[in-house]
Amino acid sequence: MTFPTRALASAACILALSAGGAAAAEPLKIALVETLSGPQASTGLLYRAAVQYQVGKINEAGGYNGAPVVLEEYDNQGGPVGATDRVRAAIADGAHIIVQGSSSAVAGQITEDVRKHNLRNQGNEILYINLGAEAMELTGEKCHFYHFRVSPNAAIRVGTLVAGMKEAGVLGERVYAMNQNYSWGVDVQEATKAAAATAGYEVVEETLHEVNKIQDFAPYVARIQATNADTVITGNWSNDLLLLMKAASGAGLKARFGTAFLDQPGNIANAGAIAEGHFVSTPFNPEAGGEKSKAFAEDYKKVTGHYPSYVEPATVFGLTLLGQALQQVPAAEDIDVTAIALALEKATIETPIGSFSMRAEDHQGVFPMVVQQVSADATFKVDDTSYGFKPVKVFSAEESAAPVQESCSMQRPS
Amino acid sequence: MKLRPFLILLAVMVLLAIPWLVSSSMLNAAIQMLIAALFAMAFSLLCGQAGMLSFGHAAYFGLGAFATVHAMNAFNGEGLLPTPLLPLAGAAVGLVSGVVAGYFSTKRTGVYFAMITLALAELLHALAPHLKGTFGGEAGISSFRMPAWGFGFGTAIEVYYLTLFWVLLAIGLLYLLMLTPLGRLALGLRENQRRLRFLGYNVHALGTLIFAISAMFSGLAGALQSLNIEAANYAELETHVSTVVLLNSFIGGVRVFLGPAIGAALMTFFGHVTSDVTRVWLLYQGIIFVLVMMFLPRGIVGELVERFSGKRPAGEGIRLSEMLPRLAGIAVAALGGVVLIELLQRVMSRDYRALAAGGQWPEITMMGLSWQPGSPLTWLVPLSALALGLALVLGVNRRAAARREATA
C-alpha cells in the first residue's frame, strides 16, 4: 500500500467514524491490480491516475453504503503470476471489486482467478472490471458474469475506424491488414475482414509479423506498395506502429493508416509530422462533444496534471458507470457484489459524447467512439507537439457496438 | 556435525507450521517462495554443481507449466493423473525437453553453451505466441484444480502443502543426487572437463544427463506454478524468468547446497513485500544484487557457511566488537539511501509534478514525517546518514585490517 492510498484509507476511516450511525456499514473496497513498476509501468500509471480521479468523484458524491469507497493499489509486477498473487492479496484484504486494464495476459489471468474464486466462494463473490484489456476472448470464450469490460475491443475499433474513414472519403477500396502475430493482431485482422462487406472494401493482403522484434519495416512497406492499397488497418502498438509508419513515410507510401493505439502518450512526439493525416478510433476526444467534453478534460487536468488521453477516458467512464450502478443498490451491512453486478448491467450514464451502458449478454460496454485524425488544426495538442487529434466522426453507442460473440455462454447467478 | 539433522528437522517443522503462523496473503507468498526455491535449486544443479551457466531455463520451467495445464484440462484431476500427481507431467516434459536441448547445448562449453541455451529459449519464446492451440493466446490457457483423494484443493493451505511436499521431495532427491557418483562427476565436469575425458568418461553424455535432470526439476517447478495459479501464459517463457532465477541463485550462493533456494525465497519475499510499498523495488533488487556480487561474491548463504564453518585460522573468527558497528553502519547507510531514493522517486513522479506545476512545491509525507522538497535539510539528512554509515563501515574495516597486519 503506497502512502496516498493509506491516507485515503485513513481518511475513509475518519469519515466513516464521523458519519455516526452509518459507521457500522462496510465500505466498498476497490483494488487496482495494475503494473506499477518495471518497463510496462507507464500505461499502468495512466490507469491509476484515471481510477484515482473517478473514485475521488464517487467519494465527493458521498461514496457508497454511508462510507467513502476505499481504493487500494497492488502492483502486479507486469505478469500473470504476480497478478494472481496480488488478486489473492486483494481478496484477503477484503476487496469487492478488482480493476485492471494494461495487459490482456494479466486480464486473462485475473478474469479466470475471479471466476474460480466465485465458484469456490459462493456468497462472497468479487467483481472484475476490465478497464482496457481488449482481447476478444475476454468477452468471448472467457466471458463470465463477474467480468465487465468498459473499453473497446478489436471489432469495435476496426468497425468504427473503417466506417469513419469511409465517411471522410479516405478509406478507398483496397485495404491492407498489417498486424502483429499474436492473439490481438489476429483479432484485428479478423475484424478487418469481417467489416469488409459493410464498408465496401476488399482486403488485398493480410500480414502477420513478429511482435516488437522488427527494426526495419521496409520490406513490409514494399509489399503494401506492391498491392497498391489505399488504406492500411493495423492494430500495432508501440515500436511496431512507429517503425512501420516511419518506414512508410521513408518509402513515400501514399496509403493512409487506420490504427488502434496511435494515441498512446509519446507516439506523436516520436513520430512527429509522419503521423499527420493518419487515423485512430478511441472512446473519447476532448474536441468532440462540445463544452461538456472540454469541461471534463479541464477538470481532469486540474486533478491529475494532464488531459485525459489513451486509456484514461474509458477508465473514467467505466467507473462512472459503476458509480451509477452503486446508486441503484441499497445500502446494507454486507456489500452484495452480485447485486452490484446486476445493477451494472442495467446502468446507463451520459458521458460528454453520448450514452454509455453495459450489454448484459456478454458484459461488453456499449459506448460512442470517436474516429479522429492527427492534425495540426486540433485544439488539444498532444505530447508538447504542434499536432493533436482532430475528430472526424463520432459514432453513437449503437453504431459503434459489435455483435455479441457466439463463443460467450454466460452462467447467470440463479 | 550433529547440528545439521537437527536444523533440517527444525526447518521442516517450521515449514509445516507456516499456515498457522502467517496471514493468507503471506501464505501465497510462501507458495511462490517454495516454487522459486525449487527452480533455483534446479538451475544451480547445472550452474553451480556442473559449472554450466544457462541463460535459458525459462524454457523448461515454461514447458513444465504448459504441460501441467494441458494435463489438468485433459484428465480433469481424475484417472491416471489426479491433481496431486500432476507435477509429474511437468517433470516428464521438462526431462524430455532437457534431453533434446541438453544434447545440443552441451556440445559446447562456457560462453558458447550459454549462448545456445539462450537461443533455444528465445526460439521457444518467439514461437509460442504463434501456436495458439498449445500456448494459448495473449490471455493464456487456464485450468481448474479439481478435487482428488478427498481434498478439495480449493484453498491456499492445500496448495501450500502440495507444493511443500513436492519441493521437499525434489530438494531431497537433489541432495541424494549430489552424493551419488553422478553428482561427484558433475563437480568434475565443472572443475576439469578435459581431465574427465582423459579418464575415459563420456563428458557429452554426462553433461546432457545433468542438463536433463536440471530441466526436469525446472519443469517440476513450472508445474507447481501452474497448479498454484491454475493457468499458464507464454509470458512465463520470457528471458526475464531466466534472469531472475540466475540472480536469485547467485544472491543465495550458487555453490552451497541450499544457497540458491534460500536466495530465491528471500528475493521472492522481498519482491512480495516491497512491490506494494514502493514503485522502485526493482531498483532496490538491482542494488542488492550488485552489492552482494561486490562484497559477498560467494552469495549470502555461501558467505555465512564460510564464516561459521570454522575453517578459518584462530584469529580470524567473528568479533562482535567489529561486527556490530559494521552492521550498524550498514543499517544507517541503507536508511539514508532508501530515504533519498524514495524522496527522489516521489519528487520525480507524475502525480507530484502535476501538483508542483503551479510553481509550489508541496510537502511530501513519507514514513510518518513530512518533508519539504525545497529545504536543503530534507536532502542533507539522508545524505549525511548515508555518508555517516559508509564512514563507519570503512573505519571499522580499516581498523580490522590494521589489527590483522599487526598480529600477522
Automatic annotation (TrEMBL), chain A:
A Pfam family it matches: Peripla_BP_6
Biological-process GO terms, alphabetical: amino acid transport
Domain Leucine-binding protein: 27-377
Matches recorded under CDD domains: PBP1_SBP-like
Annotated signal peptide: 1-24
Superkingdom of source: Bacteria
Keyword annotations from UniProtKB, A to Z: Amino-acid transport, Signal, Transport
Family: Belongs to the leucine-binding protein family.
PANTHER family xrefs: LEUCINE-SPECIFIC-BINDING PROTEIN
Protein name as annotated: Branched-chain amino acid ABC transporter substrate-binding protein
Organism whose genome encodes this protein: Borborobacter arsenicus
